[in-house]
Design goal:
The chain has about 475 residues and is an alpha+beta fold. It has 16 helices and 15 strands. The protein is about 55% helix and about 20% strand. Helix 12 packs antiparallel against helix 13 and helix 13 packs parallel to helix 16. The termini are far apart.
Length: about 475
Protein backbone atom coordinates (compact mmCIF):
# COMPACT_ATOMS: atom_id res chain seq x y z
CA UNK A 1 0.00 0.00 0.00
CA UNK A 2 0.97 3.60 -0.51
CA UNK A 3 -0.46 6.86 0.77
CA UNK A 4 0.16 9.93 -1.38
CA UNK A 5 -0.53 13.51 -0.31
CA UNK A 6 -0.82 16.15 -3.03
CA UNK A 7 -0.89 19.84 -2.12
CA UNK A 8 -1.67 22.58 -4.63
CA UNK A 9 -1.50 26.37 -4.17
CA UNK A 10 -4.02 27.76 -1.71
CA UNK A 11 -7.12 29.29 -3.25
CA UNK A 12 -7.57 26.69 -5.98
CA UNK A 13 -11.19 25.85 -6.70
CA UNK A 14 -12.73 22.54 -5.74
CA UNK A 15 -13.47 21.75 -9.39
CA UNK A 16 -9.89 22.40 -10.49
CA UNK A 17 -8.51 20.37 -7.60
CA UNK A 18 -10.81 17.46 -8.45
CA UNK A 19 -9.65 17.58 -12.08
CA UNK A 20 -6.02 17.44 -10.96
CA UNK A 21 -6.85 14.53 -8.65
CA UNK A 22 -8.32 12.64 -11.63
CA UNK A 23 -5.14 13.32 -13.62
CA UNK A 24 -3.01 12.04 -10.74
CA UNK A 25 -5.05 8.85 -10.49
CA UNK A 26 -4.46 8.25 -14.20
CA UNK A 27 -0.72 8.82 -13.88
CA UNK A 28 -0.39 6.53 -10.87
CA UNK A 29 -2.32 3.72 -12.57
CA UNK A 30 0.24 3.66 -15.38
CA UNK A 31 2.58 1.63 -13.17
CA UNK A 32 1.89 -2.11 -13.51
CA UNK A 33 2.45 -2.59 -9.77
CA UNK A 34 -0.59 -0.42 -8.95
CA UNK A 35 -3.88 -2.28 -8.52
CA UNK A 36 -6.25 0.61 -7.76
CA UNK A 37 -6.24 4.26 -6.65
CA UNK A 38 -8.80 6.02 -4.44
CA UNK A 39 -8.66 9.77 -3.83
CA UNK A 40 -10.13 12.28 -1.40
CA UNK A 41 -10.24 16.02 -2.10
CA UNK A 42 -10.38 18.51 0.77
CA UNK A 43 -11.63 17.59 4.21
CA UNK A 44 -13.10 14.18 4.92
CA UNK A 45 -16.69 13.49 5.91
CA UNK A 46 -16.08 13.31 9.67
CA UNK A 47 -14.06 16.55 9.73
CA UNK A 48 -10.90 15.11 11.29
CA UNK A 49 -8.80 16.56 8.42
CA UNK A 50 -9.67 20.29 8.27
CA UNK A 51 -8.08 20.87 4.87
CA UNK A 52 -9.17 23.01 1.98
CA UNK A 53 -9.86 21.87 -1.58
CA UNK A 54 -6.19 22.36 -2.48
CA UNK A 55 -5.24 19.16 -0.62
CA UNK A 56 -5.74 15.67 -2.01
CA UNK A 57 -5.00 12.29 -0.50
CA UNK A 58 -4.62 9.07 -2.49
CA UNK A 59 -4.82 5.49 -1.26
CA UNK A 60 -2.82 3.30 -3.65
CA UNK A 61 -3.40 -0.46 -3.48
CA UNK A 62 -0.50 -2.49 -4.90
CA UNK A 63 -0.45 -5.87 -6.56
CA UNK A 64 1.17 -8.81 -4.67
CA UNK A 65 4.96 -8.50 -4.52
CA UNK A 66 5.50 -11.91 -6.10
CA UNK A 67 3.99 -10.54 -9.34
CA UNK A 68 6.48 -7.68 -9.57
CA UNK A 69 9.48 -7.69 -11.89
CA UNK A 70 12.40 -9.49 -10.29
CA UNK A 71 14.54 -7.05 -8.33
CA UNK A 72 11.84 -4.37 -8.29
CA UNK A 73 11.34 -2.76 -4.86
CA UNK A 74 8.73 -0.45 -3.41
CA UNK A 75 11.37 2.27 -3.08
CA UNK A 76 11.88 2.07 -6.85
CA UNK A 77 8.13 2.47 -7.41
CA UNK A 78 7.97 5.48 -5.09
CA UNK A 79 10.88 7.13 -6.91
CA UNK A 80 9.24 6.46 -10.28
CA UNK A 81 5.87 7.87 -9.19
CA UNK A 82 7.51 10.89 -7.60
CA UNK A 83 9.41 11.81 -10.77
CA UNK A 84 6.37 11.20 -12.98
CA UNK A 85 4.00 13.34 -10.91
CA UNK A 86 6.44 16.22 -10.59
CA UNK A 87 7.15 16.15 -14.30
CA UNK A 88 3.53 15.97 -15.44
CA UNK A 89 1.95 18.20 -12.76
CA UNK A 90 4.31 21.09 -11.97
CA UNK A 91 3.51 23.26 -8.99
CA UNK A 92 2.20 20.42 -6.83
CA UNK A 93 3.80 19.09 -3.68
CA UNK A 94 3.73 15.29 -3.33
CA UNK A 95 4.51 13.23 -0.25
CA UNK A 96 4.68 9.42 -0.12
CA UNK A 97 4.06 7.45 3.07
CA UNK A 98 1.83 4.69 4.50
CA UNK A 99 -1.84 5.07 5.56
CA UNK A 100 -1.61 4.11 9.24
CA UNK A 101 1.72 5.74 10.01
CA UNK A 102 0.55 8.91 8.25
CA UNK A 103 -2.47 9.31 10.54
CA UNK A 104 -0.69 8.22 13.73
CA UNK A 105 2.40 10.37 13.21
CA UNK A 106 0.35 13.42 12.27
CA UNK A 107 -1.81 13.03 15.38
CA UNK A 108 1.19 12.52 17.71
CA UNK A 109 3.81 14.89 16.27
CA UNK A 110 1.79 17.21 14.04
CA UNK A 111 3.47 16.19 10.79
CA UNK A 112 3.37 12.94 8.79
CA UNK A 113 6.86 13.47 7.32
CA UNK A 114 10.06 11.70 8.39
CA UNK A 115 11.42 15.01 9.64
CA UNK A 116 9.68 18.26 10.52
CA UNK A 117 11.68 21.35 11.41
CA UNK A 118 9.26 23.35 13.55
CA UNK A 119 10.02 27.06 13.97
CA UNK A 120 8.02 28.84 16.66
CA UNK A 121 7.69 32.57 17.29
CA UNK A 122 5.25 35.47 17.36
CA UNK A 123 5.34 37.13 13.93
CA UNK A 124 3.90 35.23 10.96
CA UNK A 125 5.98 37.20 8.46
CA UNK A 126 9.23 36.38 10.23
CA UNK A 127 8.19 32.74 10.52
CA UNK A 128 7.47 32.58 6.80
CA UNK A 129 10.88 34.11 6.00
CA UNK A 130 12.70 31.70 8.31
CA UNK A 131 10.71 28.82 6.84
CA UNK A 132 11.75 29.76 3.31
CA UNK A 133 15.41 29.97 4.36
CA UNK A 134 15.17 26.62 6.13
CA UNK A 135 13.54 25.05 3.08
CA UNK A 136 16.37 26.24 0.83
CA UNK A 137 18.99 24.76 3.18
CA UNK A 138 17.11 21.50 3.67
CA UNK A 139 16.81 20.84 -0.06
CA UNK A 140 20.61 20.81 -0.31
CA UNK A 141 21.02 18.05 2.30
CA UNK A 142 21.71 14.66 0.62
CA UNK A 143 18.78 12.31 1.13
CA UNK A 144 16.05 14.98 1.33
CA UNK A 145 12.89 14.12 -0.60
CA UNK A 146 9.34 15.52 -0.75
CA UNK A 147 10.56 18.74 0.86
CA UNK A 148 8.16 21.62 1.45
CA UNK A 149 6.51 23.95 3.95
CA UNK A 150 3.56 22.49 5.85
CA UNK A 151 1.49 25.67 5.89
CA UNK A 152 0.40 27.11 2.54
CA UNK A 153 1.36 30.62 1.51
CA UNK A 154 -0.89 33.62 2.10
CA UNK A 155 -4.02 33.80 -0.03
CA UNK A 156 -6.54 36.49 -0.89
CA UNK A 157 -9.21 36.99 1.76
CA UNK A 158 -12.25 39.20 2.02
CA UNK A 159 -12.01 41.40 5.12
CA UNK A 160 -14.97 43.32 6.49
CA UNK A 161 -14.03 45.59 9.38
CA UNK A 162 -17.08 47.17 11.06
CA UNK A 163 -16.67 50.84 12.03
CA UNK A 164 -18.18 50.92 15.51
CA UNK A 165 -18.46 54.70 15.70
CA UNK A 166 -20.41 54.95 12.43
CA UNK A 167 -22.63 52.05 13.44
CA UNK A 168 -23.36 53.78 16.76
CA UNK A 169 -24.43 56.97 14.97
CA UNK A 170 -27.07 55.02 13.06
CA UNK A 171 -28.21 53.31 16.24
CA UNK A 172 -27.32 49.86 14.95
CA UNK A 173 -25.72 47.09 17.02
CA UNK A 174 -22.56 45.47 15.71
CA UNK A 175 -24.31 42.15 16.18
CA UNK A 176 -27.02 43.22 13.73
CA UNK A 177 -24.40 43.97 11.08
CA UNK A 178 -22.71 40.63 11.66
CA UNK A 179 -26.03 38.82 11.33
CA UNK A 180 -26.65 40.45 7.94
CA UNK A 181 -23.16 39.51 6.73
CA UNK A 182 -23.62 35.93 7.93
CA UNK A 183 -27.00 35.63 6.19
CA UNK A 184 -25.87 37.20 2.92
CA UNK A 185 -22.49 35.49 2.46
CA UNK A 186 -22.36 32.39 4.61
CA UNK A 187 -26.02 31.47 4.74
CA UNK A 188 -28.29 30.72 7.70
CA UNK A 189 -30.64 27.87 8.54
CA UNK A 190 -34.19 29.20 8.69
CA UNK A 191 -36.30 26.05 8.80
CA UNK A 192 -36.30 22.26 8.51
CA UNK A 193 -37.74 20.08 5.76
CA UNK A 194 -39.02 16.61 6.68
CA UNK A 195 -39.11 13.81 4.11
CA UNK A 196 -40.51 10.86 6.00
CA UNK A 197 -37.96 10.07 8.70
CA UNK A 198 -35.27 12.14 7.03
CA UNK A 199 -34.69 15.74 8.03
CA UNK A 200 -32.97 18.44 5.98
CA UNK A 201 -31.98 21.95 7.04
CA UNK A 202 -33.24 24.78 4.81
CA UNK A 203 -30.49 27.38 4.39
CA UNK A 204 -30.89 30.73 2.67
CA UNK A 205 -28.35 33.27 1.45
CA UNK A 206 -27.98 35.90 -1.25
CA UNK A 207 -27.63 35.08 -4.92
CA UNK A 208 -24.04 34.64 -6.17
CA UNK A 209 -24.07 37.92 -8.13
CA UNK A 210 -24.94 39.78 -4.90
CA UNK A 211 -21.96 38.46 -2.93
CA UNK A 212 -19.14 37.66 -5.36
CA UNK A 213 -17.11 40.91 -5.17
CA UNK A 214 -16.51 43.71 -2.63
CA UNK A 215 -18.69 46.23 -4.48
CA UNK A 216 -21.68 43.88 -4.49
CA UNK A 217 -21.16 43.08 -0.82
CA UNK A 218 -20.92 46.80 -0.06
CA UNK A 219 -24.37 47.26 -1.57
CA UNK A 220 -25.99 44.95 1.01
CA UNK A 221 -28.51 46.95 3.00
CA UNK A 222 -28.62 46.93 6.81
CA UNK A 223 -31.88 47.93 8.49
CA UNK A 224 -31.73 50.60 11.22
CA UNK A 225 -33.99 50.78 14.28
CA UNK A 226 -36.27 53.38 12.67
CA UNK A 227 -36.74 51.24 9.55
CA UNK A 228 -34.16 52.94 7.36
CA UNK A 229 -31.66 51.05 5.26
CA UNK A 230 -27.93 51.78 5.09
CA UNK A 231 -25.48 50.19 2.64
CA UNK A 232 -22.88 48.00 4.29
CA UNK A 233 -20.10 50.02 2.60
CA UNK A 234 -21.04 53.00 4.85
CA UNK A 235 -20.82 50.89 8.02
CA UNK A 236 -17.65 48.90 7.38
CA UNK A 237 -14.38 48.89 5.46
CA UNK A 238 -14.55 46.16 2.80
CA UNK A 239 -11.51 44.97 0.90
CA UNK A 240 -9.46 42.02 -0.30
CA UNK A 241 -6.23 41.44 1.61
CA UNK A 242 -3.61 38.69 1.77
CA UNK A 243 -3.72 36.60 4.89
CA UNK A 244 -2.57 33.29 6.29
CA UNK A 245 -4.70 30.34 5.22
CA UNK A 246 -3.54 28.21 8.18
CA UNK A 247 -2.09 29.40 11.49
CA UNK A 248 -0.44 26.51 13.31
CA UNK A 249 0.41 26.59 16.99
CA UNK A 250 2.76 24.57 19.18
CA UNK A 251 2.73 24.98 22.95
CA UNK A 252 0.62 28.14 22.57
CA UNK A 253 3.13 29.72 20.17
CA UNK A 254 2.73 30.34 16.46
CA UNK A 255 4.67 27.93 14.31
CA UNK A 256 5.66 27.06 10.78
CA UNK A 257 6.85 23.58 9.81
CA UNK A 258 9.33 22.65 7.10
CA UNK A 259 8.96 18.95 6.35
CA UNK A 260 10.91 16.41 4.38
CA UNK A 261 11.10 12.67 3.85
CA UNK A 262 14.44 10.90 3.99
CA UNK A 263 15.58 8.42 1.35
CA UNK A 264 18.86 6.55 1.18
CA UNK A 265 20.13 7.77 4.58
CA UNK A 266 19.53 7.03 8.23
CA UNK A 267 17.46 9.59 10.11
CA UNK A 268 20.10 10.26 12.76
CA UNK A 269 22.85 11.04 10.26
CA UNK A 270 20.52 13.14 8.12
CA UNK A 271 19.34 15.23 11.08
CA UNK A 272 22.90 15.77 12.33
CA UNK A 273 23.93 17.00 8.87
CA UNK A 274 20.86 19.24 8.60
CA UNK A 275 21.42 20.73 12.06
CA UNK A 276 25.00 21.68 11.19
CA UNK A 277 23.94 23.31 7.91
CA UNK A 278 21.09 25.26 9.54
CA UNK A 279 23.35 26.47 12.36
CA UNK A 280 25.77 27.92 9.79
CA UNK A 281 23.15 29.42 7.46
CA UNK A 282 20.41 30.80 9.73
CA UNK A 283 20.51 33.01 12.81
CA UNK A 284 17.25 32.98 14.75
CA UNK A 285 15.91 36.29 16.11
CA UNK A 286 15.34 36.60 19.82
CA UNK A 287 12.22 34.79 20.95
CA UNK A 288 12.25 32.24 18.12
CA UNK A 289 13.06 28.56 18.53
CA UNK A 290 13.59 25.47 16.36
CA UNK A 291 12.31 22.00 17.30
CA UNK A 292 12.91 18.80 15.37
CA UNK A 293 9.79 16.65 15.04
CA UNK A 294 7.97 14.31 12.70
CA UNK A 295 8.88 10.64 12.75
CA UNK A 296 12.34 11.70 13.91
CA UNK A 297 10.68 12.78 17.16
CA UNK A 298 9.57 9.19 17.72
CA UNK A 299 13.09 7.97 16.88
CA UNK A 300 14.64 10.40 19.36
CA UNK A 301 12.18 9.30 22.05
CA UNK A 302 12.95 5.62 21.38
CA UNK A 303 16.69 6.34 21.37
CA UNK A 304 16.49 7.90 24.84
CA UNK A 305 14.65 4.85 26.12
CA UNK A 306 17.12 2.46 24.53
CA UNK A 307 20.02 4.44 25.99
CA UNK A 308 18.60 3.51 29.38
CA UNK A 309 17.37 0.00 28.60
CA UNK A 310 20.54 -1.34 26.95
CA UNK A 311 22.93 -0.61 29.87
CA UNK A 312 20.37 -1.93 32.33
CA UNK A 313 20.00 -5.12 30.28
CA UNK A 314 23.75 -5.68 30.21
CA UNK A 315 24.03 -5.02 33.97
CA UNK A 316 21.24 -7.49 34.70
CA UNK A 317 22.93 -10.13 32.51
CA UNK A 318 26.24 -9.51 34.25
CA UNK A 319 24.60 -9.89 37.68
CA UNK A 320 23.00 -13.19 36.71
CA UNK A 321 26.31 -14.45 35.32
CA UNK A 322 28.12 -13.43 38.49
CA UNK A 323 25.68 -15.40 40.65
CA UNK A 324 26.02 -18.36 38.24
CA UNK A 325 29.82 -18.58 38.22
CA UNK A 326 30.66 -16.79 41.48
CA UNK A 327 33.40 -14.94 39.63
CA UNK A 328 33.46 -11.55 37.97
CA UNK A 329 36.18 -12.82 35.60
CA UNK A 330 34.07 -15.61 34.17
CA UNK A 331 30.98 -13.36 34.09
CA UNK A 332 32.91 -10.76 32.09
CA UNK A 333 34.31 -13.48 29.82
CA UNK A 334 30.82 -14.71 28.94
CA UNK A 335 29.65 -11.15 28.51
CA UNK A 336 32.24 -10.76 25.74
CA UNK A 337 29.81 -12.66 23.54
CA UNK A 338 27.76 -9.46 23.40
CA UNK A 339 30.33 -7.57 21.25
CA UNK A 340 30.84 -10.82 19.31
CA UNK A 341 27.18 -10.71 18.33
CA UNK A 342 27.29 -6.95 17.69
CA UNK A 343 29.95 -7.46 15.05
CA UNK A 344 27.82 -9.80 12.98
CA UNK A 345 24.65 -7.72 13.35
CA UNK A 346 26.33 -4.50 12.24
CA UNK A 347 28.09 -6.19 9.31
CA UNK A 348 24.79 -7.75 8.18
CA UNK A 349 23.03 -4.37 8.26
CA UNK A 350 25.87 -2.81 6.26
CA UNK A 351 25.90 -5.54 3.61
CA UNK A 352 22.13 -5.30 3.10
CA UNK A 353 22.12 -1.49 3.07
CA UNK A 354 19.74 -1.23 6.04
CA UNK A 355 20.02 1.75 8.36
CA UNK A 356 20.11 1.34 12.12
CA UNK A 357 16.58 1.76 13.45
CA UNK A 358 14.48 1.01 16.52
CA UNK A 359 13.59 -2.36 15.01
CA UNK A 360 17.28 -3.20 14.60
CA UNK A 361 18.00 -2.08 18.18
CA UNK A 362 15.30 -4.44 19.46
CA UNK A 363 16.97 -7.18 17.41
CA UNK A 364 20.26 -6.53 19.19
CA UNK A 365 18.57 -6.81 22.58
CA UNK A 366 17.04 -10.20 21.70
CA UNK A 367 20.37 -11.27 20.23
CA UNK A 368 22.22 -10.64 23.49
CA UNK A 369 20.30 -13.39 25.26
CA UNK A 370 21.20 -16.11 22.75
CA UNK A 371 24.81 -14.94 22.59
CA UNK A 372 25.21 -15.01 26.36
CA UNK A 373 23.56 -18.43 26.59
CA UNK A 374 26.05 -19.90 24.13
CA UNK A 375 28.90 -18.44 26.17
CA UNK A 376 27.46 -19.90 29.37
CA UNK A 377 27.42 -23.39 27.80
CA UNK A 378 31.07 -23.23 26.76
CA UNK A 379 32.47 -21.66 29.95
CA UNK A 380 30.39 -23.92 32.22
CA UNK A 381 31.68 -27.05 30.44
CA UNK A 382 35.29 -25.89 30.67
CA UNK A 383 34.89 -25.18 34.39
CA UNK A 384 33.24 -28.54 34.95
CA UNK A 385 36.09 -30.41 33.27
CA UNK A 386 38.70 -28.58 35.27
CA UNK A 387 36.88 -29.21 38.54
CA UNK A 388 35.93 -32.87 38.02
CA UNK A 389 38.89 -34.35 36.20
CA UNK A 390 41.57 -32.01 37.42
CA UNK A 391 42.64 -31.76 33.79
CA UNK A 392 45.19 -29.19 32.64
CA UNK A 393 43.68 -25.89 31.59
CA UNK A 394 44.65 -26.37 27.94
CA UNK A 395 43.02 -29.79 27.69
CA UNK A 396 39.93 -28.58 29.55
CA UNK A 397 39.53 -25.61 27.21
CA UNK A 398 39.85 -27.70 24.05
CA UNK A 399 37.70 -30.53 25.37
CA UNK A 400 35.01 -28.17 26.67
CA UNK A 401 34.80 -26.30 23.35
CA UNK A 402 34.58 -29.54 21.37
CA UNK A 403 31.99 -31.01 23.74
CA UNK A 404 29.72 -27.97 23.47
CA UNK A 405 30.13 -27.56 19.72
CA UNK A 406 27.03 -29.59 18.92
CA UNK A 407 24.69 -27.98 21.50
CA UNK A 408 25.84 -24.47 20.56
CA UNK A 409 25.57 -25.31 16.87
CA UNK A 410 22.03 -26.64 17.24
CA UNK A 411 20.86 -23.73 19.40
CA UNK A 412 22.24 -20.99 17.16
CA UNK A 413 21.52 -22.58 13.77
CA UNK A 414 17.90 -23.35 14.66
CA UNK A 415 17.34 -19.78 15.89
CA UNK A 416 19.12 -18.37 12.84
CA UNK A 417 17.15 -20.44 10.33
CA UNK A 418 13.92 -19.38 11.99
CA UNK A 419 14.76 -15.74 11.30
CA UNK A 420 15.85 -16.17 7.68
CA UNK A 421 12.28 -15.92 6.23
CA UNK A 422 11.68 -12.68 8.12
CA UNK A 423 15.03 -11.30 6.93
CA UNK A 424 14.03 -11.99 3.31
CA UNK A 425 10.39 -10.91 3.67
CA UNK A 426 8.94 -8.35 1.26
CA UNK A 427 5.25 -8.38 2.20
CA UNK A 428 3.16 -6.35 4.61
CA UNK A 429 5.15 -5.47 7.73
CA UNK A 430 8.49 -6.43 6.18
CA UNK A 431 9.90 -2.94 6.75
CA UNK A 432 9.85 -3.70 10.47
CA UNK A 433 10.75 -7.40 10.22
CA UNK A 434 13.80 -7.10 7.97
CA UNK A 435 16.05 -4.96 10.23
CA UNK A 436 15.29 -7.06 13.31
CA UNK A 437 15.74 -10.40 11.56
CA UNK A 438 18.87 -9.24 9.72
CA UNK A 439 20.50 -8.27 13.00
CA UNK A 440 19.62 -11.59 14.58
CA UNK A 441 20.84 -13.70 11.63
CA UNK A 442 24.12 -11.81 11.25
CA UNK A 443 24.74 -11.64 14.98
CA UNK A 444 24.08 -15.34 15.50
CA UNK A 445 26.44 -16.21 12.66
CA UNK A 446 29.31 -14.26 14.21
CA UNK A 447 28.40 -15.59 17.67
CA UNK A 448 28.59 -19.16 16.37
CA UNK A 449 32.11 -18.67 15.05
CA UNK A 450 33.52 -16.51 17.82
CA UNK A 451 31.97 -18.48 20.68
CA UNK A 452 33.60 -21.72 19.57
CA UNK A 453 36.93 -20.14 18.57
CA UNK A 454 37.60 -16.81 20.26
CA UNK A 455 35.93 -17.51 23.62
CA UNK A 456 38.01 -20.64 24.44
CA UNK A 457 41.16 -18.80 23.36
CA UNK A 458 40.34 -15.89 25.66
CA UNK A 459 39.66 -18.34 28.49
CA UNK A 460 43.07 -19.90 27.97
CA UNK A 461 44.78 -16.49 27.90
CA UNK A 462 43.08 -15.44 31.16
CA UNK A 463 44.13 -18.67 32.88
CA UNK A 464 47.73 -18.26 31.72
CA UNK A 465 47.89 -14.71 33.03
CA UNK A 466 46.34 -15.72 36.35
CA UNK A 467 49.01 -18.44 36.76
CA UNK A 468 51.78 -15.94 36.04
CA UNK A 469 50.35 -13.49 38.56
CA UNK A 470 50.20 -16.21 41.23
CA UNK A 471 53.88 -16.97 40.65
Amino acid sequence: MLWIRANFPAGISLTKSADLAAAIRTLVRQSPEVKSVTSQTGRNDDGTDPYGPNRNEFFVALTPYDTWTRGRKKADLVEELSNRLRREIPGGFFSFTQPIIDNVTEAVTGSPADLAIIITGSDLGVLRRLGAQTLAVLREVPGAADTGIEQEEDQAQLRIRVDRQVVARYGINVRDVQDVIELAIGGRTVSTFFDGERRFAITVRYLPEARTDPSAIGSILVTTRDGGRVPLSQLADIGVVSGASIIGRRENRRQISVRTNIRGRDQGGFVLDAQKRLARAITLPEGYRVDWGGQFENLARARRRLAFILPVTILVIFGLLFFTFGSATYAGLVLLNVPFSLVGGIVALYLRGINLSVSAAVGFISLFGVAVMSGVLVVSEINRRRADRRAPARDAVIGGALAQMRPVLMMIVVAMLGMVPAALATGVGSDVQRPLATVVVGGLLSTLVLTLVALPALYWMIECRSKESRR
